[in-house]
Fold this protein.
Amino acid sequence: MIRLHNILPALFLLTFSATGHAALRVVTTTQDLAALAETVGGEYVKVQSLTPGTSDPHFAVAKPSMIRKVFRADLLLVIGADMEIGWLPPLLQAARNIRVQPGNPGHLDLSGAVPILGKLSGSVSRALGDVHAKGNPHYWLDPRNGVHMARAIAARLGKLDPEHAAEYERRFRAFEQTLNDKLLVWQATLSHLKGKPVVAYHTSFIYLADAFGFRIVDEVEPKPGIAPSAASLSALLARITADRIGFLIMEPYYERRSARYLNEHTGIHVAVLPQSVGARKGIDSYFDLFDAIVIELLNTEEN
Amino acid sequence: MAYSKLCITLLTVVIFMLAANPDVAVANEATDELQRQIDSLVRRIEELEKRAGQSLNVPPAMAATGAASAGNGALQIGLSGLFAGGGSSVDNDALSRLQGGAHDPNQNGFVVQNVELSIGATVDPYFDAKAHLIFQIDSDGETVVELEEAFFTTRSLPGGLQIKGGQYFTEFGRQNKRHPHSWSFVDQPVVLSRFFGGDGLRGQGARLSWLTPTDWYSELIVGLQNAKGETMTSFLNAPGEEIGGHTLLDRDARRFGDLLYTARWLNGFDLSDTISMNLGVSGLWGPNASGDNTDTRIVGTDWYMKWLPARTQRGFPFVSWHTEVLWRQYEAGDLGIADRETLRDWGMFTQALWGFKPGWVAGLRWEYATADGDTATDPLRDTRKRLSPNLTWYPTEYSKLRLQYSRDWTEHLVDGSADTLWLQVEFGIGSHAAHVF
């Protein structure tokens, strides 16, 4: 016969073990942030990214399922620097979760954790195209920034979940160690690119250039976010020939026609670089991302 | 406030620019001219913005930064202008009856459809607030200003609850609460013009919304709004107006039953990684002004599907499909009155959009609206079909050009049909207008 006083202890045990394993719900705007949060948070967090690494995070489309994710989140990680301004503010309002509103501990804007490049001063007009006054938001493409980001995430996880703070710190240290080791290998592998002029499709690789020492001298887009025209392409073509620019780097989601045209007329090497974790199958971690970028740049050189 | 002064100046510039060119008449020939006007307008606006920034003693850089990238905490101010030019096979009188929306292009030649000033900000940890002011020029050249919306929303209620109060668009279906600059076609659907009037269904009131604790996205909204006024066409519309031959009385709200009750249930699912779907049902219950004890009921259902592949550039390519069906039951005349009857109307629209390359969207809309009884001569209740293909080009997120053709088959016209062609231009300046979904 089952009596209440017999099953009560079991119930208590069940409740405690359940809360003991209640993972922190972390929602991120991009897969890069998700990968870092998973690395640092381990088994104590449940991470979901709002956008896939295959898409351009400037232009995510807010879906209703995102509202549910943000509604239930304990921590929201954002790239910031206006990267998500086109879709995150209405999503935050619709999700009505005060914990993850800006200014609360459940909201972490990682652009505050890294040195931001390309900040604009003076008059910022949209006549210049899709420019960000707050600076260039593609900062996760410098592996050194990955360390800053992971550190900030570990600190915030520790604040929200003090019980496992030491564990987050330990996991961050391990990440930092591995990353620093790998960075030396990546930099050595790409040392031949040092000082070389490179053309990018969009203004999204300045951090990568900074990390590996090459120079981005021009973009395929005449202005950020403005599609190239025949005139702008022929001007770029002349420059590539005159300055002997050997590399064009671009994200997989941009049109390839312009790059093919430039390649056919100048022989410039075109490297389609995964710009985010999840941009291609097999890129599941922050390390995978740079492994893939380095291999892509190396292969392009050899071809 | 200096900014509102600026906006009024802007408006004057807009009016001036359009008035200065009376001899341009037909859209096809005027395309280039219109584009030049818009270009010069944008230049003037930028100049004005600079000047406004200086006169406020704000360093220009700061003023520009605020405008370009106001964050969540800052005041967000934006101005959008929507202009159209074009013509129809019918004259202006007939055209204004066909284009029932107050923001529809409704006369041959040029139309300032909508110039909208939007201001929004977070008030404090508890409230967000937003207002939309509309500037318009009617067919007599008079400038009309209206407070389209002004409302607060709560930020921190527990349990997924949220309250909105003030003057706002009723959450009925997907289309009603959209502002003209975010429409996918140059004009509003026929059935919405018929049931909700030219300005859409909106009014003063409050509503409670609940995000239910389900595994999928599910939101329940119930609200109460004043049922009186021009923006409550199917309810206590302005006295003297007519519906189905019944003249409307001056009827006031005297009890709770004289308010408009609104309800909506919206669900969202991801069918796969690339296909998402929304399903909604909405209902309205309120008094109407054809008698002292007469009521109107409107129900509607809406569905929306969107395909977005894994790899996109600027949110392209995509395919979306949006359909709404609405039914109205309108008790006309009090009990005991000889011509008492129940007017039954229904209508639908279904529209598909195909974003086939970055910045380019092709659209097709099919509409049908009809009513019971002998309504062939009534432009608001006859049987009407409309087919509208269009093509939109977005040079950036802040501007667009749209060409739309419409073929109308409608009973009240002598010829039974009409052809219309519009070219629409839009610009948006100020705070980043976040995309709605």
About this structure: The helical segments of chain B are 2-19, 27-55, 60-69, 92-98, 190-196. Chain B touches chain A through 54 residues (CB under 8 Å). Residues 151 and 166 of chain B are 4 Å apart (CA to CA).
